[in-house]
Fold each of these.
Amino acid sequence: MKQQIYKGKLTEFHPLKIAKKQDLTKNTFSLEFEIPTDLAGLFSFDAGQYVTVLTEKDGAEYINDYSITAAPFENKITLGLKINSDKSAASLIHNQYSEGDLMYVSKPAGRFTLVSKPSEFRTIVGFAAGIGITPILSHFKNILHQEPRTRLFLFYGNKNFENLAYREELDQLARFYGDRLQIYYFFSQENTSNSFFSGRIDEKKLNLIINQILHLDDTDEESTIWDAVDEVLICGKGEMIKSLANACYHHGIPKNNIHFELFEEFNEDIYPVEKEFPLIENIEVEYTMLGKNFQTELHDNREKILQQLLIQKFPVPYSCKSGICGSCECFLEEGEVELLENEYLTEKEEAQGKILACMSIAKTKKIKLNFDFN
């Protein structure tokens, strides 16, 4: 086992053997790990979660999160990785590691998850772009296996056919579960015989999808398929998530039923801030992180706490700055804040005093935070 600080937290990494390595496209590949019996409990997971992988080269360490593509019932850990550049961690892994090698992997984490409801009739829609298919693939396999009454619709965007990862596995699922799973592929840089499937999946495309695909509902002649949607899953770049999440919300899906996962840093709010706050100036902020105490003063509360600490170049844990990843989760030990939209904390955790610093507006002259907790 190896311990390392990652996103402001002490993270444990365990050596796992690569059981299988497979190229998917020219710039994506998959890894399957062998889980020792004594670590089986530690590496149990929920659909939609990820693991953190630590790699080393020439004395340098690279730490990155990768979504699990397997479903829990498959009893294995498989990942999908995309090589964005020759110097990326994924490129290093692809070039330096082979089947049989050991890699350091953390236990599964993340809250891009759903509560299983095998006895209910549900309609779930997924939107994915590129390597954003990875956690949604895990979700869809799990739902199809666990929920015999649930129907699913997947809208999957890529640049072109050549870059479409997991095509064979997705098509196999569609053939096997043809009465409950429909998959539609979209290409932004390749001509298609039907122009409907050309272009990015965004707000405009969603309007067309609702009106031309999710319209007539064979199970209820008085409503549309979209009217019956219970949950929406979105994974891709920040702009795509922002566009689709707001479009889904404006088309009647409650925010609590819209779930999203980023695969890169995104510094904007997903939903627009609709509240106004009384101006407070000269705010004293104290916080604890990794056993060290820090203190500063914020000019006012026009901006969120984490963002202001970063501007002042204080060390704080973060990744997305959008209330999605939970890296800046902390306890509010003193003062009051307004916690804006977040995709991470539960109502119970909020009641316990937990907040996300990236989505918190100070409402008192003094704020005290603690980022150290198990």
Amino acid sequence: MVKRLLLVLAALSGAAAPASAARIKDLGQFQGLRTNQLTGYGIVVGLAGTGDDSLEYATQAMKGVASRLGLQIPAGINPATKNAAAVIITAELPAFAKPGQTLDITVSALGKAKSLRGGTLLMSPMVGADGQIYAMAQGNLAVGGLGVSAADGSNVVINVPTAGRIPSGATVERAVDAGFATTPTINFNLAEADLTTVQRVAQAINARLGPGRAQAIDAETVAITAAPGAELRTALMASIENLDIDPADAAARVVVNARTGTVVINGAVRIAPAAVSHGKLTVKVDEKPQVSQPAPFSQGQTVVTPNSAIAVDEKHSPMFLTAGASLADIVKAVNAIGASPADLVAILEALKQAGAMKAELIVL
């Protein structure tokens, strides 16, 4: 399967294909227009005996919930929260989210709860990195997992029953000021730094807005001068992000996953003249002990005699020459000697060390 995949890649990229046009919005994003992570702590109730039982922080949380509802639990009384569980709530707050909008949230058990199936999350605040409350969460959980335990200790678990989702389970209470309306410039950041691409982005913006409006300040950022005001800048960014440019060709790169044996080579990889030979040495040791039985009534003893057979098999692999080879040539040569994915990794690493492969080798 791996060889077939490599052959397909070779057929598709045997010749270096010209870069296709891409929208600016697909190459990165404007600075400040980002999502923000929210986190909260809450209590899920209504569980069928699969909660945290008498876990201390779940007990304290239940006492706090009860006190907010006007119920005072006497000191020293354990509410035995086996039908409740302490949970951590996570969500992402999109850019420009306004109060009243809803967010999807993920609820995960914090303690020893066996399952959150059938539970209801009580109203819980969700805070950002600055400690401010940005949303309130509450709702019924949708849990895709299932866990069942028997009296003898046996259990069956399907997927993950200790985590669930609540679609539209949080309501935004505070908006995040992106700050883009008053900054001196609007900055556009590429997802992947590239000197050629950032220059082409600046040129495309200047061709649309006029000379000198955009300037590439480094390999990743383009600064665009704009009049202050959210409405004007929103319209300006909308016109910029839909401009088409031709991104720079990707750098020669080989990505190797040593754990799975996956190797991906892009079409820009070239190999300088080099001779490659790769062989395998297999040593097989076979133990076949022989048993000698004494004759009947001879009062002898059974004797086991070791018998070992050692065989050495060295697979012959012919040497092949690479001279300015492309991706297609590399794949053909490696397949010709019957190399496995692990062998291909070894060959590519050796070519890199020998200076014959002018490409970045990334090992995951």
Amino acid sequence: MSRKAAVVALTALAPISWGSTYFVTTEFLPPDRPLFTGLMRALPAGLLLLALTRKLPRGAWWWKSAVLGALNIGAFFPLLFLAAYRLPGGVAAVVGSVGPLFVVGLAALFLGDKPTVKSLVTAVAAAFGVSLVVLKAGAALDLVGVVAGLLSALSMSVGVVLTKRWGRPEGVGALALTGWQLTAGGLFILPIAFLIEGAPPALTGTNLAGYAYLALGNTAISYFLWFRGIERLSASSVTLLGPLSPITAAIIGWVALGQALGPVQVLGMVIAFGATLAGQLAPRTPKKLAPAGEGPFNSTERNGHKVSMDLEVSGVRR
């Protein structure tokens, strides 16, 4: 397996894990508490990672971490859970699947990545495939839920692009950066949750198990893999892993809840998964021949220098 394939595979574990969020929310958590749920998912995970890494932001990274934490966590989580509570899971997933289209436009604005026909086609195909997987006839639309879903996708998309643009400070690992963002996002949610939803609800053992899963596997580990992948892959290829989330949600619904999975849903999975794979394929670039008289040693040295410069410019750290 190539290095890029390994990075893609590990990064893909994040949206696969997130595919269980709707199931856990509806089956394990107390109803109608989107802000408290977002808080319990983010803050404990962030504090745990801070305790493990023992590193705090310095200089400009205090405000950068706050901005990224607000976008990737603080705004995204409450909006995501609000959409999950107010919309059927399928509708919420389709609304969230427009994220790759947001990223294509934002990457052009902030990263100078010009949209290509391939990136647009794969993003549209992914959203279409997801719609076939999860939409059902007569699915109810709630305006607040739809707006919340769109804003959650936009918030995460801006967070992905800015994470790619800013990278991370030298000597700081992806685990520490993940902890900074989760803690900042959790602190962002904390006062809003208590102001709007009041005191925490009484929690059962089932509720606590659900929150523990969301905080550890679904958040701390998954977001570490996600931010690590953003560093090593293009913004569009990372976000095109997103359709794996609703595909996983549909499979969980089929296996755990006995929900029907017919030919149309299977076709949608194939289309969405194909778009995800296509988004990971790098465009072919023609190889340049070395000038006459240039030996293999010098050619290798020149190409090695070019590769290191490209990695430095793109912000990739190895």
Amino acid sequence: MHIVHTEADGGKGGQPLRIINESSGMIQRGHQVTILCPETAPLHALAREAGLTVVTMPLKRKNVKNLQLLRQWLKQNRHAIDVINSHNSADTWLVALANLTLSNPVPLVRTRHASGVPRNNWTTRWLFRKACAHIVTTGEALRHQMADIGVPMAQSTSVPSGVDTQRFHPADKQQSRAHCGLSQDDFWLGVVSHLRPNKGHSVLLRALAKIDNPRIKLAIVGEGPHKATLEQEIVELGLEQRVLMSGHRSDPERWFPAFDIALSPSHDMEGVPQGVLQSLASRVATIATDAGGTADAVIDGQTGLLIAQRDESALHEAIMKLHDDAMLRETLAQQGYDYLCAHFTRECMLEAMESVFSAAAAQRNRS
């Protein structure tokens, strides 16, 4: 198959990484992949760095000029394309409208990465139910949002972003700490994510400040617009000696095994956070909030501890519960790892997406 991905602008978080990871896997499976996105989108540079075929296309705004440019490209190439996978609202609308004007339009599959509730009006219902051959969500909670606006369950599939278990896997804690520059004898909490307010770092810092144990420390891995605010909060809470801001790291797979507990305190609109899946793949005890589709992977008391969003008291209690019970940490880490390997690997994702794309392409051939 020839699969075309479109993206208006998915920022620097998990969305572009999902597209790249999935595209690379599809190419390895023998498919052709092309990515259409604006030059200003982070995906544009990231995909080229990954060696993927990228076509610069202005998709950030729904206007006549952008529609004409996309329609022209699709008209020239539609017979060589089997399926289009869109990832944002603007590019989905542009593809849908362009398809209306073309004979033999290309089947459109929409992937919803965020858990924001879609508008329930006739235009949105038309877009998802009629213009899209299928809807992919990155978590079951997002899939039920689609059902709430009338998308049949048979027309949607939850396909979380799978983890590359060749990259993220269990490793020796002492060696990992030596690589990351973390002290060997302290109890390390870790969070790996983009630094923006809804990722919940501030809640985590307040929970840590309630813990009167200087040996319990926190490593924050990532960059983003919330960095300066977090640095100020660390000082205000008196946590300078207990919190490490490592900045962006190109080797997060070396950090997860260094943690005693990995955390995802998010209250963001997302599917299943990549950091959660990566910590499970690294066989590390995990605490996460019930944001988006996180509960698909973190089953409370079985594969990790799942707590309410923005609840620093619950977060504090969960940290202390795992700190005080090494056997529980080990049990959750192993059960989380086993569950990840069965349900959330890169291969699981590729199998599911290949089935979705094949079915969508078959619809076109039958029509």
